Amino acid sequence: MDRTQGQAEPVEQPATASAAPAAASAGDGPAAAPAPVPVARVVTLTAGDFTLTVNPVDGSEIEPRRPGTGAAAPAKRDAAGRSARDAAARPPALPGPAAPAAPLLAREEERERLVRLLGRGRSVRLTGPAGSGRSALLEAVAADCTGLAPDGVVRLSGYGHQQPGELLHALYAAVYEASAERPERTRLLARVRDIGAIVLLDDLEMGGTALDELLRATPECAYLLAATPDTRAPSDDSHLEEVFLGGLGRADCVALLEAGTGRPLTDEETAWAGDLRFASEGLPLRFVQAAALLRQRDERNLSSAEDDDDEPGVFEERPRDAAFVALPTLAEGAAPAELLASRVSESARAALRIACALGGEMPHHAHLPALVGDTHADAAVAELLGCGLLTPVGTRYRLAAGVARQLEEAGFADTAPEEARTAARHYAWWTGHASVTPERVASEADAVLSALAGADVVAAVLLARTAAPAFAASRHWEAWERVLRSGAEAARKAGEVAEQAYFHHELGVLALCEGRLDRARAELEASIGLKGALADKRGTVAGRRALALVTDREKAGVEVSPPLRLEPPVAAASGAASEAVTTAMPAVPAVSKPAPAVAPVPAVAPVVPVIGRTQAPTTLSEVFEEAFPLDSKPAVAAPVVPAPLRAAEPRRKPVLLAAAGALTVVVLGTVVSLAMAGSDPETPAGGVGPAVSSTPTSGTSGGAGVPAAGGNDPAPDPGATAPDASEPTAPEPGLSPDPNQSPRTPSRKPAATPPSRTPSSTGPTGTSSNPAPTPTVTEPTTPPVPTPTPTPTSTTPANPSATV
């Protein structure tokens, strides 16, 4: 492919032709003899069930793994392999004479306790503030734990890791000899479960469930986790031992200063050390930096004394120090970065500016000659490390805690954009060089990512394009994903459609290898669309092949849903029915009939409207419910109250009861009168018949045998007429009609001659089942004389119920 800055095709151009200018600028000496070494490095990996071919030119290709390949588990490293791996996990050795290591003071008790707990297989969390000497204590414990575990001691760095996935892969790569395999999650968990090692994890940044997942995945490992107090605490079920590191005492601080300066302290320096110990809470890092301040002070004072003894030269260009250098102030001792940086070499100060531009990451010392422009700039890392401005983190160095902020306040970050752009262009050349192995690129992952974040879009696209294949080949897939996403965004801003299609294709392949099928489909479809717009047939075919694998994985991963099984309801502990069981209850409870012995008068129950009655009403109360509903609203599904509880309900108001009883009497009278009037043949067409009274009263006006009807007299009850003794259907004199039965209409046949009645002194007294008072019918003492043609009474109302 064409490069962004007019470079030649990487496949056709030899590596030395394009690398010679950069190598000369980097201070590596003259260019070697030309060698036809291509830039493209094709690496084949086994990723789960796939075979991944990393091609830096045309993009990665993925295909199903062939049967019988990659099934055997890799072997573990032997003692020699573990020693080589342990040396590779340490920070690189710096050029020049080795600086003396700072002594480990006042840590013997913690050291013995950690070794004892790790020997028992317990995991420990070592907590201490930044600069308390956690890394130095881990190194001492690692030397004491050699030979305790079958798989030895493994050093890991947790800086920048919030999830345990990459840490598990790093542990797997440190123990097993599998340089061309990155197992899937299931196989990874099965293999790391068999690892029995003492794992020293420095700069821990995760806690809670993520840390629990790491500990559960490796049950045979004993961990020594070094973290700061602001790191998320582990869960209660992690069963981690806690060891806290505090500051040093006054005597230990003075001893550390003397070891750093190489001489005894004066009384003034001892008093200054006591004040510094109070201000810094006895952190060892502050006294390493304070020892560097005292060494610089001694060098300056010694050089001033030697200059006073010598005769000044005529052509001397260096100005002399006019005064004796005093002790630093307490503020300078508590924040010494600015003062220390002002007294180091120019190459060291340039390296500090680069570190500030890269977010605190210090590049490998081999890159400093090219980045700074000084052939001896590689010695700047050792100079800064001796001053306490750098601290080891894994296989690299970073600015110590608090140093970056102090340098930014001093103006070292003013040229950060220019420094980041320079670093990005340098790393773009270095990561694409054929002589650089993917493992070397992976060791510089943090510096490369920091340079990528601060570079312009053109340099960012070029760096991401060359670094992504190296991260993929080194199995550092977390950095691979980050550089791909940053490159895709930079390519979109720069308008590089071809590069944007490449990054989306790589993201889709990565997601497919990790089992994220939805993400893989989205990225591959975006890549195929962009390549189709560019008429890239080869890239489109590669994308469709990967997309077909995604489709196959989706079909293979679909599980048939199990049949629906309804479990029987589980009864409660008390024996009651479960709440899930619904018992069918009637919508409207039936109105029970009162017993005659208890309540001779039927009680009026609350009227509930009946909707959708299937049977004809059989009682008067049911007729009343349909004719006069009290509530016109539809019946609401209310909780059914058991029958025993209805007796305890409060009774209706007396006024409502009286009104209901009166209406019941009216309805009963109306029904009976209509029935009797319909069966009488002498009833006129209007339905109004003569008022006949069988109770004659002597001495009343109106004619013999015809009673006079007054306006104030109650209406005669038609059902209370004395029956004829000769009729077979007449009731017995001593019985009263059943109120719950419908009244029967008596049949009255016309006779040619009126029957004669036998006078009697006593007769049956008609009683009514209605609560309202009814007139009493008594037999006359003298035989009545019936009139053949009765005269209708004009005062009798047509409606018998009008007098009520």
Structure description:
The protein is α/β, with parallel strands linked by helices and 804 residues long. Helices cover 41% and strands 6% of the residues. The strands form three sheets. The chain has a five-stranded parallel sheet, with helices on both faces. Helix 17 (416-431) packs across helix 19.
How is this fold's topology laid out?
Layout: H1 15-25, E1 43-47, E2 50-54, E3 61-64, H2 79-88, H3 108-119, E4 124-127, H4 134-144, E5 153-157, H5 165-175, E6 181-182, H6 185-192, E7 198-202, H7 209-217, E8 222-227, E9 241-244, H8 250-261, H9 267-280, H10 284-309, H11 330-334, H12 337-342, H13 346-357, E10 361-362, H14 368-372, H15 380-386, E11 390-393, E12 396-399, H16 403-409, H17 416-431, H18 438-443, H19 445-454, H20 457-473, H21 477-494, H22 497-513, H23 517-533, H24 537-557, H25 620-627, H26 643-646, H27 654-679
Parallel strand pairs: 1-6, 4-8, 4-9, 5-7, 7-8
Antiparallel strand pairs: 1-2, 2-3, 10-12, 11-12
Helix pairs in contact: 3-4, 5-6, 8-9, 8-10, 13-15, 13-17, 17-19, 17-20, 19-20, 19-21, 20-21, 21-22, 22-23, 22-24, 23-24
